[in-house]
Amino acid sequence: MDIRINAVNFDILDNLTEHINGKVEKLFSQKADIIHADVALSLGSANDIENKNCQITLFVKGDDHLVKKNSKSFEQSVNECVDALQEILRREKAKQVNQRNDGNPVEVF
């Protein structure tokens, strides 16, 4: 499990790093094919209320997933990104299960 965190133009606090690691680790438990995750945090314009930006790129064998979210806090942005990635992984898993079932019909006696 490899999580790379990059804060653009500011220093990241330890409690935010712990929050990010805790949330992103959940994604690794959902799918074994995840190679690593890149988390990029940045500040938007000062005029915007929701100026805390988070971008998570999940590198998976065969596919990469990118999600960007903005909110009032970095914690909330991270939570929204992880929720979106969990939904993507759920849909991907359901699609694979459906393909297996369609390709190999089950006989019922």
Characterise the protein shown here.
This protein is α+β, with helices and mostly antiparallel strands and 109 residues long. It has 2 helices and 4 strands. The protein has helices at residues 14-30, 74-103, and strands at 3-7, 34-43, 52-60, 63-71. A 4-stranded mixed β-sheet has the order 1-2-3-4, covered by helices on one side. Strand 2 (34-43) and strand 3 form a beta hairpin. It is elongated, with a radius of gyration of 17 Å. The N and C termini lie far apart (45 Å). The model has no long low-confidence stretch (mean pLDDT 88).
What's the SSE blueprint?
Blueprint (H helix, E strand, L loop, with lengths): L2 E5 L6 H17 L3 E10 L8 E9 L2 E9 L2 H30 L6
Parallel strand pairs: 1-2
Antiparallel strand pairs: 2-3, 3-4
- What's the count of strands? 4
Strand order of the largest sheet: 1-2-3-4
Order of SSEs: EHEEEH
Characterize the main sheet: 4 strands, mixed
What is the global morphology?
elongated
Portion of residues in helices? 40-55%
Structural class: alpha+beta
Q: What are the segments in which pLDDT stays under 50 over at least 5 consecutive residues?
A: none
How many helical stretches? Answer: 2
On the 0 to 100 scale, the average pLDDT is 88
Strand content: 25-35%
